[in-house]
Design a protein that fits this description.
CATH architecture of the domain at 62-184 and 202-229: Orthogonal Bundle
Radius of gyration: 33 Å
Distance between the termini: 89 Å
CATH superfamily of the domain at 62-184 and 202-229: Cytochrome c-like domain
Number of helices: 7
Shape: elongated
CATH topology of the domain at 62-184 and 202-229: Cytochrome Bc1 Complex, Chain D, domain 2
Number of strands: 0
Order of helices and strands: HHHHHHH
Helix content: 25-40%
Oligomer: single chain
């Protein structure tokens, strides 16, 4: 009995010795020596929301009030041709996948007769008190689902500021009485020397202002870049 116990004990000790020997050999083979010069830890600053701030934040966009001063109705009409699948533009035109866009500028949101708006759009409209201002149109056309989460608008958005301004200038022309342009001076920052910005030709009206809106033809009807449901 004692002889068997000694055998088990010797076997256990032998196993421990083998395991320790393997560990020592492995450490010597796969050892990772410390570098001669230590590296530097990169610490990300936390933003207000707790996330990391982007070091490559792009410059702020020129306000839509300023961009509209030099926007082109003709270019906007060309941009809007990709919207004709979902929208009509003529006065009294029918609704399609999206509502008719005649006189859209400054129209109360989600109030066009006969169109079934999404719950998200109805909520954004605040009972019709929210309007399609130039700013709202610009934000919505940049990213419909980003501006109004839950909207049924299928358009992904237009990230080109000047192109959006052209499009909004065209939408503005779709009216018997186009709405006045926003004042560009109020949107311009003060000059670096502290003086007020001088009045400039930026107040020049874009093509088509003050004239009756061009009659929309089937070839000139727009597409999915305009506001929808």
């Amino acid at each position: 009995m004692e002889s068997d116990l000694n055998k088990y004990l010797m076997g256990f000790l032998g196993t421990c010795f083998v395991v320790m020997s393997i560990g020592i050999v492995s450490d010597s083979i796969f050892a990772a020596p410390n570098p001669d010069k230590p590296g530097y830890a990169i610490e990300a600053e936390e933003g207000e929301a707790g996330g990391t701030e982007s070091a490559a934040a792009g410059p702020a966009e020129t306000p839509i009030a300023v961009r509209l001063q030099t926007a082109s109705v003709e270019k906007g009409e060309a941009v809007h041709k990709k919207c004709v699948t979902c929208h009509t533009t003529e006065k009294g035109g029918p609704n399609k996948t999206g509502p008719n866009l005649w006189d859209i500028v400054d129209r109360p949101v989600a109030t066009h007769e006969g169109f079934s708006y999404s719950a998200a759009m109805k909520d954004f409209s605040k009972g019709g008190t929210e309007k399609w201002t130039y700013e709202n149109l610009d934000h919505f056309l940049t990213s419909p689902k980003g501006f109004i989460k839950g909207t049924a608008m299928g358009f992904a958005g237009d990230k080109k500021p000047d192109e959006r301004a052209d499009l909004i200038a065209y939408l503005r022309s779709l009216s018997d009485s186009p709405k006045p342009l926003p004042a560009a001076d109020a949107a311009q920052p003060a000059a670096s020397d502290g003086t007020a910005p001088a009045a400039s030709d930026a107040t020049a009206k874009p093509a088509g202002e003050g004239t009756a809106a061009p009659a929309a033809t089937d070839a000139a009807k727009p597409a999915e870049t305009a506001p929808a449901q």
